[in-house]
Write a structure and sequence with these properties.
Length: 345
């Protein structure tokens, strides 16, 4: 066992200065039983001095969590109590992440750009991650890589909820409100819904817009004309100057991209539970309605199991979960932890 080498790689990993080869070597060592105590000591030290994490991205903290839990799961000799301690320490990373995100939003220190509410601004995902956000009305959006969503000034109080997908792809889960239609603008095309789930993809380069419905109905038009009403499993392709194409598609396959690694950006527990229901085919029941509005930030990885994700959420928000059966999960608790409850602004 090379303790010196491990310590060297750990520091480079924390400082985000490690080469790809060093990251691979470090993660390989993390998974080995002989380094378990060293990893735990390092994590304990960081937990005792949380602000040493200030320069780390939320995704890096979550990556560390994922690798630590994976190492614990793969170790045949790890006792249940030890595994719980590891999850607590690892989840603490995400608690710190949410803490820094909250104060970053308040004092301008966040590494992630907050969601703006002007048509001149927006939320833009990076080249390497998806972004899951909750809109002011409770609707949720998963932004694909290299995508930009802008929100109208009147979204909160206007008669119409308007957003602008100026580039890329987004999946919308819209909160039903018959008196306030939800409209997605993509160039000349306008997609109108009352409450449904659908994706929109647009490209500035080609001018092509693709709308795919997974549930409910959407109305698609360009302001002066209504092209069609789409049902679940239907897709429409629009490109200025060309005939509109409508076709049957496998909606799940067309929107499978949203189940990759995703950064949760100040989202509510209710919107996350909806996403997990879709991802894992389960149903969530809330024993306390108040916890639905708990907000937090974290990163979910495609490789993580439902149990791992629930363990992280429980640690961050101070809620409890239990399986009523194989597909039904009850969430309970008195509310959110102070540091991870970010009220609507």
């Amino acid at each position: 066992m090379s303790t010196h080498r491990f310590n060297y790689l750990f520091q480079r990993y924390i400082n985000e200065t490690a080469t790809p080869e060093e990251v691979g070597e470090f993660l390989s060592m993390v998974r080995q039983e002989e380094y378990r105590e060293i990893v735990r000591d390092h994590m304990d030290s960081l937990w005792e001095s949380p602000f040493t994490f200030a320069s780390l991205s939320a995704k890096k903290k979550a990556t560390m969590f994922n690798d630590i839990v994976t190492a614990a799961d793969n170790s045949r000799s790890a006792a249940p109590v030890a595994r719980r301690n590891w999850i607590s320490v690892a989840a603490a990373i995400l608690i710190i992440s949410s803490f820094l995100f909250f104060y970053g939003r308040k004092y301008g220190l966040s590494g992630h750009e907050p969601m703006r509410t002007t048509t001149g601004g927006g939320v833009q995902s990076t080249d390497k991650e998806l972004r899951f956000i909750t809109l002011p009305d409770g609707s949720s959006v998963v932004l694909n890589q290299r995508s930009t969503l802008e929100i109208s000034d009147t979204f909160r109080a206007g008669n119409v909820r308007e957003v602008y997908l100026t580039e890329g792809e987004a999946f919308f889960e819209v909160t039903h409100n018959a008196s306030r239609p939800f409209i997605v603008y993509t160039g000349k095309l306008r997609t109108t819904v009352l409450g449904t789930a659908f994706s929109v993809k647009t490209s500035r380069e080609t001018g092509m817009v693709t709308v795919t419905v997974t549930k409910g109905k959407v109305k698609v038009g360009d302001g002066s004309r209504r092209f069609d009403v789409l049902d679940p499993g239907e897709q429409i392709v629009y490109q200025r100057g060309r005939p509109v194409i409508k076709r049957q598609v496998d909606a799940k396959q067309a929107t499978a991209w949203k189940h990759n690694d995703v950064f949760l950006d100040n989202v509510t527990l209710k919107s996350v539970s909806d996403e997990l229901q879709d991802r894992f085919g389960v149903t969530f029941i809330f024993a306390n309605e108040a916890i639905k509005t708990c907000r937090f930030s974290a990163t979910f990885f495609k490789s993580q199991s439902l149990e791992q994700l629930l363990a992280v959420i429980a640690e961050i928000t101070h809620i409890q979960y239990r399986f009523l059966n194989k597909t039904t999960i009850e969430l309970s608790g008195i509310g959110c932890h102070l540091l991870t409850h970010i009220p609507n602004e």
